[in-house]
Amino acid sequence: MSRHLPRLLLVTLAIGGLPAMVLLLFLPLGLLAPLPALLGVAMTLLGAALLALVWVGDLHLLEQTLRAADSALGTPPMPRLPALATLAEGIAQVSRQRAAHVAGIGRRLETDEAIVELLPDPLVVLAADRTVQRVNAAARENFGADLAAVLRHPALRAATDRAQAEGVAQRVALLLPVPARELDAAVIPLLEASGALVVVLSDRTRERAVERMRADFVANASHELRTPLASLIGFIETLRGPAAEDAPAQRRFLGIMAEQAERMNRLIDDLLSLSRIELVEHQAPVETVDLAALVPRVIAGLEPRLADQRIALEVRLAAALPVVAGDADQLAQLLLNLLDNAMKYGAMKHDDGAARVRLEARAVSGEARWPARPGLLLSVSDDGPGIPSAHLPRLTERFYRVDTGRSRRAGGTGLGLAIVKHIVNRHRGQLRIESTEGQGSRFTVWLPVARGAEGEEGG
Hints:
This protein is elongated. The longest helix has 38 residues, at 34-71. Strands 2-1-5-4-3 form a five-stranded antiparallel sheet, with helices on both faces. A five-stranded mixed sheet has the order 7-9-10-12-11. The chain has helices at 5-29, 34-71, 82-118, 137-142, 147-151, 154-166, 205-240, 247-279, 291-308, 328-346, 404-409, 416-426, 451-458; strands at 123-126, 132-135, 170-176, 181-189, 197-203, 288-289, 311-317, 324-325, 355-364, 375-382, 430-436, 440-448. By secondary structure, it is of the alpha+beta class.
């Protein structure tokens, strides 16, 4: 209160000073008796002091209201005088509205920040001088320290120049050499006057690879079918013409035609198998398969070929193999393709005239090279000539062959390992291919143990 005393005295004098002076002037003129005049002066000053006390207090409350409006800290008590109370209430209402507006803007900014941060595509905000103002999580995750190099890409720099000069969004395709990536970049001006830009980078590497793979697949499939078909057409024309009466030539040509027709049949069967597997590849199998029972059935179907080609198949199955979650028909096809691949390309004749292929299966859990959860390892190995390391990454591509001529002579379609890869993918497993030239190759598949069998295996 002491700090308001000067203001209180000033207001008191302003209110009661003039009436008190008039009463005091009446004394020399004899218009009032001394006692009534002094009593009137005292009452006038007392009333003025009381009114000043209320006035100064309300002004102090109004000051608090203004400060509260400025800082949005809350609403103070209202003044007692009606005019000042109305003014203070209006100020408080404006303050509340402004605080609500500021809070709404803050929430929208937080929402906008969250949306930008959660966008799946990398997003970068550039100032007019090309300095980076904002980078979202996708950009940090996908590019990290390489983002500056991406922004310096000549094609992207040219697009940013055009966007700033024309004020129109620009699109450009980027090819990054290491690692090889294909990006679509959209450069969007934020405000024409500010010169700021938004750069959205979309990784199209996978989509472009799929497009190329499909084009290659159509080209390769048509080529693989055209070759035997051309042979059949040529032999049919020969049998109708020059060899119409040549019985030995007919027998020889018919044998070749049968081989070509069988080759086409195998190719179509593999194409259909691959198509069926890809159709359900995203759906993990829900049934369980006991490989200890499945392996003998697959081997029994190969016994005539093993005997005819003098190939010794060594089978090593660990005791009490766990069951796996899988499709029995697809796992049988996987095993058959791996064994067929080893018999065609990896079986090398030994001094005794026989070739050897090994099939092994065992449970695994926690080994460094494989997932941590319990699984089953199924491997097929041979002691053949091996595969050059440059070919290993591409062995599971459709129609890829290390030696095209040898593959066709052996009756291969170039789809066997592609089918294996897609079966492994559907079973949520892993495939590893190891080979040393001159020592042989090993194809190993890891399959997860069925959920119900994990506890049994771990026990």
